[in-house]
Design goal:
Elements (H helix, E strand, L loop, with lengths): L4 E3 L3 H16 L10 E3 L4 H9 L2 H13 L2 H16 L28 H11 L1 H9 L13 H25 L9 H18 L4 H19 L2 H9 L6 H6 L2 H23 L13 E2 L25 H8 L15 E2 L1 H10 L8 H9 L3
Helix pairs in contact: 4-6, 5-7, 7-8, 8-9, 10-12
Length: 366
Amino acid sequence: QIGHFTLDNAANNNVAMRKLSELLGARGIQFDADDCRIMYAIDKDTYIESLERDPIALSHDVVRAVRISSLRRESFCATVENGNKMKLWTDEDGEETELPMLELLRDVKSRWASIYFMINRLRVLQQALDYFFKLPAQRDIADYKLEELEWLILQDIELVLEIPHLAQQGMSAESTPTLGAVVPTFEEFITRWQCLSELVPRCAPFVRPGLECAQKYYHHLDKTRAYLIAMLVNPNIRLSHVSSHWSLDQRTNAQSVILEMVCLHESMGQHAHEAPLQMKEYRVRVVGTNSAVDAPEAPRAVEPCKKACNQRSLAARYGITTSESRGRPIAKTVRTIQEELDGYLAAEVQEGTDPIHFWQVSTLYI
């Protein structure tokens, strides 16, 4: 009877178990490749020993060894190509796959996320590298072949570095990067690092120093109102992130700060010549009146990147005088700051609205 097999995490062991399952199945013997496999438990001391050998420095050595000459680079590319033709490479599930025809990347200190990209490329070409260093023609550099545990450490480091890399990519991918996306992106980045430390405890020592620095930086963000206001004026964010991710006390404080800042802005912008009004007494006034009329119409959807926005809808929502209403009597209304704010927060805005264009349209007729 065949029982269970204890194997390490190498991809070739996935293939071996699948092939064994096929062979036994052809003989009428039931064998579940997943159920009958016991994953190799990583020994802490062995992991630390491999870590002390500095896998990142070893990665630098591998890259230098392969890229040292055009002849060796061509030989490595030929190894990848021949392996694709001979179907030597497999994916994580043991299925046949092809490796991309790529060169190894150097770690350049002046380039953002350079170590991450170097490790990522090494791991993509891991099977080809292991095969390459075993070739008789490369016996003079055979010692550069990394051990399985060293590859595992590189995988862990790549996983740690991938989280801030994705955060940076998310910000730089925006055609119009805005300050409002900083806090949501930064909070997600910190949360993902914390989750990684809990789910993969061996990654915690890698994460801890970076997490301490990130949290210090986050505390500085908390002292600046600009980030909160920037979220508010981004029609794609407004207070959605605050409502979903902040505590009740934080949400209450944020709303107080926003109301205070909006009142201050309106007071300075429209009544600079008057004595400052108290927040409770302040009311938004449309030109030429301070008398109340019927309640304003409900906010309407704002189409992005179209100058032909409904000007009447904007006027109702933000107290803007349109070109049609200039020079003649207009409807008279009084709205509190809170009503104006609630109207903006409740307005339907199409996903992906350009924040800058949104406010260009919204303030064009003030």
